[in-house]
Design brief:
single chain, about 220 residues, nine-stranded antiparallel β-sheet, 9 strands, alpha+beta, 6 helices
């Protein structure tokens, strides 16, 4: 049995990814993350903080590099399982902290982060979260599509969307609003990034909304 285990470990160590496999893996993770369904509705008393399930986090694709690390951890766990005859779960397991903390409404963004943003009037299935104690996150349905708004004073691109920028267009000079079309494999994602001088906002869609539909939502939430 020891020799067999050694052969299996050596086979794992010698695995070399095929040409382009890593890029395809990242693209697939990004696509699948965007396709995840929203979590079951959770209720809490006003002012309480609720932790959202991991599949809810992956819906809007936190940086794909983190997903790649998770995949590596999976291989490591399998390798460690081969090395031991102890039943699974008898040793301490690596746990990944959930960066999403659910809140009840947009007023919590103002209170905790000093950021003012909300879903458009008429939006359905609205979910509010604070990410890593510094970013506001809203997911909502509006006129047949699912959208995400993120806002942070840290700046940068925190949309979580990864791929090739196919198009960039300024749509609002006053707020320096830029519409970007992103291609990831066979999928196309849209985002609009703008600022009020202190906070950066990103509105995005990954389920096939048109550019005009995204612009219409932007006009309602800017």
């Amino acid at each position: 049995m020891k020799n067999k285990d050694e052969r299996i470990r050596r086979s794992i160590d010698e695995i070399e990814p095929a040409e382009g496999a890593r890029e395809r893996m990242l693209a697939n993770i990004s696509r699948k993350a965007a396709e995840q369904t929203a979590p079951e509705d959770t209720k809490s008393k006003p002012g309480t903080v609720k932790v959202l399930p991991f599949k809810r986090i992956m819906k809007w694709a936190m940086p794909i590099a983190a997903c790649f690390v998770i995949a590596v951890i999976g291989v490591t766990v399998m390798n460690n399982t081969i090395k031991t005859t102890e039943p699974f779960g008898t040793e301490d397991n690596v746990q990944i902290a959930n960066p999403f903390a659910g809140v009840d409404n947009a007023a919590e963004f103002e209170r905790v982060l000093g950021i003012s943003i909300d879903a458009p009037k008429g939006a359905e299935n609205v979910e509010y979260s604070i990410v890593d104690n510094e970013m506001a996150d809203i997911v909502f349905d509006f006129e047949g599509h699912c959208y995400n708004i993120r806002a942070s004073k840290a700046g940068g691109d925190f949309s979580g969307l990864n791929g090739i920028e196919e198009k960039t267009e300024q749509i609002d000079a006053k707020h320096n609003a830029m519409l970007t079309v992103i291609r990831s494999g066979d999928e196309f994602y849209l985002k609009i990034t703008w600022t009020d001088g202190q906070t950066t906002f990103i509105l995005s869609n990954t389920d096939g909304a048109s550019e005009d539909e995204l612009k219409a939502v932007y006009e309602r939430v800017k």
